[in-house]
Amino acid sequence: MEICGAHFRDEGGLWIGDIISDFGHIEVLLDGARDAPSQEHVAAFERFAANLSENLLNVRKQISLSFLYRPIRIAPNNENRIGVQFKSKLTGKQVGMFFWD
Q: What CATH fold (topology level) applies to the domain 2-100?
């Protein structure tokens, strides 16, 4: 299944996808059922992906020394708010979710 250029596969109701951005490949996670991802999560991801590069940059600004981090994962939470997880380019440490909205 493809949504906004991201190719998804079902892993028991968790839909795992991959999208290419200016930062490289980013994993996308959507909740759902075996037959389809949650429509609310799909809608939230579509809104975010409409301006992917700009939205990623805006979320990244929430981190001190943001140029040292790259996005690695996008996932909506149970309130359908999009969160982005980042990884340090220096240490490889992953930092928590930062929300777009």
A: Heat Shock Protein 90 (3.30.565)
